[in-house]
Amino acid sequence: MGGDNKGENYEYGPHKVAIPPAKPFLKGLKSSLKETFFPDDPFRHFSNEKSWVRRVVLGLQYFVPILEWAPRYTFSFFKADLVSGITIASLAVPQGISYANLANLPPILGLLAVGSLLIASMLGKEVSATEDPKLYVQLAITATFFAGVFQSALGFLR
């Protein structure tokens, strides 16, 4: 097993990595903000466009994707989307209603709050669904609302 490793250059032990040169504060801040808000740099795709109108159109297409794909949308795409939508609805609607029932919420709320079971476990510790159903539903709606606000903010900030 031992054998020698002729011709192979293996080095064991700590490897040194060069420290990058320091950047001015504003340049570093600009780079960090750009990476935070636009990690995929949407403007690089059309920064070489000459016409400002074309840049605006491409920018709108990036932030509102329907403007890009809608002109190429065909009837065959619509048929496939319709079948997919019916299939998903036939599975998701009964599942949402069941989750709402398990969480002691009205069935219609199961369609709105995907995390009904999580909400039920959280709220069950604070208020009883049988003793004060109105407060229970209000707290479930409030928790769902703030989860949506938080998710939207994170989506906006990427």
TrEMBL record:
Where would you find this protein in the cell? Answer: Membrane
What keywords would UniProt list here? Membrane, Transmembrane, Transmembrane helix
Check the record and name the Pfam families matching this protein. Answer: Sulfate_transp
Any one GO cellular component localisation term in the record:
membrane
GO BP, sorted A to Z = transmembrane transport
* InterPro entries for the chain: SLC26A/SulP_dom, SLC26A/SulP_fam
Q: Which residues form the SLC26A/SulP transporter domain?
A: 78-113
Q: How does it sit in the membrane?
A: Multi-pass membrane protein
**Coiled coil regions in record:** none
Report the transmembrane regions from the record. 105-123, 135-157
What is the protein named? SLC26A/SulP transporter domain-containing protein
Which organism was this protein described from?
Cannabis sativa
